[in-house]
Design a protein that fits this description.
Helix content of chain B: 55-70%
Largest interface: A-B, 71 and 49 residues
Oligomer: heterodimer
Structural class of chain B: mainly alpha
Low-confidence stretches of chain B: 143-154, 183-192, 201-221, 367-372
Shape of chain A: globular
Mean pLDDT of chain B: 79
Largest sheet of chain A: 6 strands, mixed
Largest sheet of chain B: none
Radius of gyration of chain B: 23 Å
Number of strands of chain B: 0
Low-confidence stretches of chain A: 554-564
Distance between the termini of chain B: 38 Å
Number of helices of chain A: 19
Chain lengths: ~575, ~375
């Protein structure tokens, strides 16, 4: 039956099947669950009274506010900035306050945010119309990347990595394939699909800008075969250009970057290897749309398209201003949504983040909001029966059952050797597990453990090195002291007769003989003075060095904590 | 609204242990049908006794361990163990044989290690091996066909009379057979396994009635075993199709057994080795390959480990069967191979995504490539 459906799609969208692909064989096919929200057109969310914009954009990247409390701002005006990367006011109004507010993160933490009270006018900043340019070809690629940075565009698909940094590092390499990811393989999320259904031409314009920046020879737009309407729009939009639409089977997680590159280019990326190193660059369709808006219309990233779904409300796709509190979005779909909602998830049901607070603002990576009436009901965990279903679906070719055993037993090296760090946390193993074991949660804990161990090992190595250096210095001091002492004694030996002691150790323990006590006391007083000065100098140098080295060695630690 | 936050994934599929076990039970149906058709009700009685004893002992141990009885009984793993054990016990064995076997399988085969998923050895085979070594007489009672005394024209293995005889064989103290006019000197109508027949034919004066060309469809001949094995083959293919098991173990095991039997077989001679056909369809190879060796708990996890496991198992099966003194060799081979499983699990893992074959073999830890 499935193959029949596939065949009929294949016949309908022949253009998309010209390229030889290697689609994902593993993975899962959960219920897609997107037709509800796609049955309606994209709606505009009414303006919220308050917009909350976290200054922390990507992991440790925190911007500096450039506005003050009480200042009036216009839509599109820069309100925070760092190294040419900006956050803009999503609507006109006044800056109410800059304070810590809850934001979307798995731990339910607070972060500094700029809070804007909107005035309901939604007036654009006048500079917007100046920036708009029809012809991007007139500018250099670097100028375009700068514009993208100024527009504050981050990746709108997954992790939210700043787009300009990604493009900038890609220009260092020779990129021959640009992949535009329109897979959106996770169930329930339909934001990209809705975007393509309604604004495919604009998306394609954005793709052309990316193509121009990267000088990519091949440009592929990858899309799942279940998105019929989007494929149709996309195929008509790319007509006449050298952009190729590639249709892949609907399967989770075929939209993951590594898996997509494997499917399209038949190349596998090792952990930590950048796609640019094999001449590939991936961008999301929503990002291309944002780039189109930034370059051609001069509009910075102030809104995105989001799917609002879940059993607590009527599903729909909305265009939402960044910073809109989730509660406004929910109440737009259903007036009583908040009372009904027991659990809120940003992102899809398989990789999304559960929110601790309904006041969390929508951010650039919020492609889906799931409001469910029941708490995410995970069935009780049973013992692993080693059925191996997880290994059959793992897109990273791991043996999840073995990794689980290693994680549970704290066999860290075994977990590492089994490739735990290559786990992409897609949750496919979790989905098929007949014992309902939350495998990914065990892996996350074990990954954190491994990171801790690594950090401890590097710290230990650092201190060991310091200790060894210290020991070497001491030895050297001892040797010079010994040398000096013996030389002094030898000099004195010419005048009065005294036994020459070469063993410093003995010297330290025993008191000097009474015959030489006075002279040695005078000598040692002189020596002590110079010794003290030398020691002071050494200490100063050491302190400076220490400060420098701790600054270096401490740097990775906050980052690693961040990831946890 | 706030409760303890859960990390992703928030979605689970509909798989559960009960469903998995139900598929395994279902996959045994063709073989069960064939066995009942050819050998009568003896197997059914064994299954009922084994399952009852298995559930009872599982419940008892769960009670002692203070765990949820309903949860562990409803997962169906005890039923699968019981069913596989029942297939290995000769029909007509006295009632305490299946009961004792199932109790041993569940208690010392499974629960002493910590229950489901933690046993080192295949529980059904532990039960079988314990029975075979303790009660060899009862466990090898796949009697020779007594074609002289039982006339198949009026005596179908599925008839009511046959049912009574089966019951009587299992519970000798009931003496039901006198009602139907048979004296209870008939102590068996289950047939010899072809393997036993072959072994006997090779070693004794009984002429080799078993021929390699024995017809598949002749119900009155002694070839029900081929149908049972075909049933297991069908069931195994069903499990493969349903992805309950993977191909690695059955294929490597069967290929090994076939290769060895081809190598040693001398057509025409009455030597002990037996034909490849006999090894595949006249013995317990099919149930072993698809149902017993593939028990996920006691077999290796990685594909490479599974293939090595299958090959080792094939070698063990062939050697013990041909040169050993026991009737068949699945149980002992499986137990031996189970012991090797942890070793096979330790070092072997498949190539991870992104690893080139070269880096996979050379050094698993130091990867080439840019670090992000």
């Amino acid at each position: 039956m499935n193959s029949l459906i596939r065949l009929s799609r294949r016949l309908r969208n022949q253009a998309g099947y010209t390229r030889k692909t290697r689609p994902l064989r593993r993975g899962i096919t959960p219920p897609i669950n997107k037709s509800d929200s796609l049955s309606k057109a994209i709606q505009k969310l009414p303006l919220a009274k308050e917009l909350v914009l976290p200054l922390r954009v990507y992991q440790s990247l925190t911007l500096e506010p450039v506005v003050k409390e009480g200042e009036a701002v216009l839509k599109g005006q820069v309100i925070a900035s760092l190294d040419g990367f900006n956050i803009h006011a999503p609507s006109s109004g006044t800056v109410a306050t800059i304070e810590d507010r809850p934001y979307a993160n798995p731990a339910g933490l607070y972060a500094p945010c700029i809070v804007i009270n909107t005035d309901g006018m939604d007036r654009w900043h006048p500079s917007i119309s100046d920036r708009a340019s029809e012809n991007f070809n007139e500018r250099s690629p670097y100028a375009l990347i700068e514009l993208i940075a100024e527009a504050g565009i981050t990746g709108l698909g997954g992790a939210g990595f700043p787009c300009h940094q990604k493009l900038h590092s890609a220009t260092q390499h020779n990129i021959d394939t640009l992949i535009i990811n329109a897979m959106e393989c996770e169930p329930s999320i339909a934001a990209d699909e809705a975007l393509l259904q309604e604004r495919a031409t604009q998306v394609v314009e954005g793709i052309k800008i990316l193509q121009y920046i990267l000088h990519a020879k091949t440009c592929l737009v990858a899309i799942e075969d279940s998105k019929d309407a989007a494929i149709k729009q996309l195929l008509s939009a790319v007509e006449g250009s050298d952009i190729e639409v590639v249709i892949l089977p609907t399967r989770y997680p075929s939209g993951s970057e590594q898996q997509l590159i494997k499917a399209l280019c038949d190349k596998e990326l090792a952990r930590g290897q950048l796609p640019a190193s094999i001449g590939v660059h991936c961008q999301n369709v929503a990002t291309s749309y944002a780039i189109f808006e930034a370059i051609c219309l001069g509009r910075p990233l102030v809104s995105r398209i989001t799917t609002i779904t879940g059993d607590a409300l009527a599903s729909c796709n909305v265009e939402v201003l960044l910073g809109t509190p989730v509660v406004d979005a929910l109440e737009f779909c259903d007036e009583n949504a908040l009372e009904k909602t027991k659990s809120l998830i940003f992102g899809g049901p398989l990789m999304g983040v559960e929110l601790a607070n309904e006041l969390c603002p929508v951010n650039a990576t919020t492609n889906c909001i799931i409001a469910s009436q029941s708490q995410t009901l995970l069935k009780p965990e049973q013992d692993c029966i080693r059925c191996g279903f997880c290994a059959q679906v793992c897109p990273a070719y791991l043996l999840p059952q073995q990794l689980l055993l290693a994680s549970q037993q704290g066999a860290h090296e075994q977990a590492r050797a089994g490739g735990l760090q290559d786990c992409i946390e897609c949750g496919a193993c979790n989905y098929v597990c007949p014992s309902h074991i939350p495998l990914v949660q065990y892996y996350r804990a074990e990954k954190a453990e491994l990171r801790n161990l690594d950090a401890m090992a590097s710290r230990a190595q650092h201190w060991q090195q310091r200790f060894e250096n210290h020991q070497a210095r001491l030895d050297k001091q001892k040797a010079t002291a010994l040398d000096r002492r013996s030389r002094a004694l030898r000099m004195r030996a010419k005048a009065p007769q005294a036994p020459i002691k070469t063993d410093l150790h003995d010297e330290q323990i025993k008191a000097p003989s009474s015959a030489t006590a006075e002279t040695s006391a005078v000598l040692s007083a002189d020596q002590a003075k110079s010794d003290i000065q030398a020691a002071l100098a050494r200490a100063r140098a050491k302190k400076a060095q220490q400060q420098q080295s701790t600054a270096i060695s401490d740097k990775p630690h906050p980052k690693s904590e961040e990831k946890e | 609204m706030t409760q303890a936050l859960k990390s992703s994934p928030h979605l689970q599929g509909s798989n559960n242990i009960t469903k998995t076990m139900a598929y395994v039970l279902l996959a045994c149906a063709p073989a069960y049908a064939a066995a009942t058709w050819f050998f009568g009700w003896g197997l059914t009685i064994n299954i009922v006794l084994c399952m009852g004893a298995a559930l009872a002992s599982e419940a008892l141990i769960m009670r002692i361990r203070q765990r949820s009885i309903t949860e562990s009984l409803s997962d169906g793993s005890a039923l699968v163990t019981a069913l596989l054990l029942a297939f290995t016990i000769p029909p007509g064995a006295p009632w305490w044989i299946p009961i004792l076997g199932a109790m041993l399988a569940i208690t010392i085969g499974k629960q002493v290690y910590g229950g489901i998923g933690l046993n080192i050895f295949n529980p059904a085979m532990v039960g079988y091996a314990a029975l075979l070594t303790a009660f060899p007489l009862q466990m090898t009672g796949w009697q020779l066909p007594n074609v002289l005394t039982i006339d198949y024209e009026w005596f179908s293995p599925l008839s009511w009379d046959a049912f009574l005889i089966s019951i009587n064989l299992t519970f000798p103290f009931l003496s039901l057979t006198q009602d139907i006019g048979l004296d209870h000197e008939i102590d068996g109508f289950a047939k010899a396994t072809p393997l036993l027949f072959h072994k006997l034919a090779a070693h004794s004066a009984i002429a080799g009635q078993w021929t390699e060309q024995a017809s598949l469809f002749d119900r009155s001949s002694d070839v029900g075993w081929e149908w049972i094995n075909l049933g297991f083959l069908c069931g195994g293919l069903f499990l493969l199709f349903k992805r309950i098991i993977t191909w690695h173990i059955p294929v490597s095991l069967i290929v090994t057994v076939l290769a060895l039997s081809f190598y040693f077989y001398q057509p025409g001679s009455e030597a002990v080795y037996g034909s490849p056909y006999l090894h595949l369809f006249g013995t317990a190879t099919m149930i072993g390959a698809f149902f017993i060796a593939t028990d996920p708990v006691s077999s290796p996890a990685s594909p490479a480990g599974k293939i090595i496991y299958g090959i080792l198992l094939g070698i063990f099966i062939y050697c013990i069967r041909v040169w050993g003194s026991y009737l068949d060799s699945i149980a002992f081979s499986v137990l031996l191979a189970n012991g090797i499983t942890p070793l096979l699990d330790y070092g072997l893992r498949p190539r991870i995504f992104g690893e080139t074959p070269r880096s996979f073999w050379r050094d698993k830890l130091s990867r080439k490539g840019e670090q992000a």
